[in-house]
């Protein structure tokens, strides 16, 4: 593990992955502080990848902090949005690295939300077969989920996140101050992934979120700090046991099978990833109910929290002629599918989850009962 740069007032969560272990630093003012990057490789050059929204807010601040670590700090500003999470945008990162003759010691910094983080991580995994990279997440969703655990990649028109690699960052630096500029809709999208950790792993945390959802929506710093820390601890616990998703890690995809179908079916960027996951969790809760694993009260509680977090609970129609068929078609293009059979993360009792195949008729009924009518 790289040397630490832990300071008073800062939380630190460790991801234990042997020689790929690293720390998640959570606190205020971290991107402005050179010591946040202490102990990381100090190659001659660095490339900060961000997007057109985040650059005017935070790029100069990170550039300043990195000046003492690297002789040259390059920056690449990508177009914003999920719709740009594809090959052509990824190629811009390679163009920049090659134009500047960046070598194997060049450090990539992903400054932004999950889209920038996933693409930068994938670029780092591929460039010269692997260069060091650091995640500097600036959305709630990225701080509690996407920057942690080493899943990197891009979308394909036929399926979300279908092209990618497992590639761990050297450190994750969550500066809570960056959340102050996040649009409310994006804050809600991040809360979907926070809520997710309750039903799959920790009902005490779920209760805490129920009690603090208003404070979280109001961006109370202490509440956000706890939500980020507890989410990262749960994710770290799961990823440390199953880095490459041969089993347990799949539970982190609770709500995502329905959610990915919504994202792809509506067109990437139409529904935010977190919105689709929020609605998808309610659908997956209903599926668990239909399997007799949880009761109606549990599903109502989940739906109520998702709604309070400002997220949709009514699923969109993806096809006016054959809506169920369209959902099924999209859900078959899922990394959890095996031999064409869709597998869902279901709640196996509050606070526990598992992956299982579910009969098509039960899935169809959940889609019918969850969707807006035509
Ligand atoms: P995003 O990266 O699109 O960011 C959301 C929006 O907020 C963007 O418009 C962005 O420019 C803007 N933004 C970012 N930081 C800001 C700030 N501090 N102030 C103001 N605006 C800011 O979306 P996201 O929700 O962060 O991430 C979603 C992506 O993450 C999806 O592509 C999803 O597939 C991926 N994801 C990956 C993992 C993983 O394990 N790798 C896990 C969950 C989600
Ligand atoms: N967000 C799911 C995972 O990291 O496995």
Topology:
Layout: E1 11-15, E2 22-27, E3 45-51, H1 55-66, E4 72-78, H2 87-99, E5 107-112, H3 114-126, E6 133-137, H4 140-146, E7 151-156, E8 159-166, E9 171-175, H5 184-201, H6 203-217, H7 221-241, H8 256-266, H9 273-290, H10 296-308, H11 323-332, E10 343-347, E11 353-357, H12 360-370
Parallel strand pairs: 2-9, 3-4, 3-5, 5-6
Antiparallel strand pairs: 1-2, 7-8, 10-11
Can you describe what's shown?
There is one protein chain. The protein has 2 domains: 11-181, Rossmann fold (3-Layer(aba) Sandwich); 185-219 and 241-372, Dehydroquinate synthase-like - alpha domain (Dehydroquinate synthase-like, alpha domain). The chain has 12 helices and 11 strands. The protein has helices spanning 55-66, 87-99, 114-126, 140-146, 184-201, 203-217, 221-241, 256-266, 273-290, 296-308, 323-332, 360-370; strands at residues 11-15, 22-27, 45-51, 72-78, 107-112, 133-137, 151-156, 159-166, 171-175, 343-347, 353-357. Helix 6 packs antiparallel against helix 7. It is globular. It starts with 10 loop residues before the first strand and ends with a helix. The site of glycine (GLY) has 6 residues, from loops.
List low-confidence stretches. none
Structural class: alpha/beta
User: What is the C-alpha radius of gyration, as a whole number of Å?
Assistant: 20 Å
How do the SSEs run, as a string of H and E?
EEEHEHEHEHEEEHHHHHHHEEH
Strand portion: 15-25%
Instruction: Please give the CATH architecture of the largest domain.
Output: 3-Layer(aba) Sandwich
Number of domains: 2
Tertiary shape? globular
What level of helicity do the residues show? 40-55%
Q: If helices are DSSP runs of H or I spanning 4 or more residues, what is the number of helices? A: 12
How many beta-strand runs?
11
State the major sheet: 4 strands, parallel
The end-to-end distance, rounded to whole angstroms, is 54 Å
> Could you report the average pLDDT, rounded to the nearest whole number?
95
Order of strands in the sheet with most strands: 4-3-5-6
Q: What is the CATH first-level class name of the largest domain?
A: Alpha Beta
The CATH topology annotation of the largest domain reads as: Rossmann fold
Give the distinct bound molecules. nicotinamide-adenine-dinucleotide, glycine
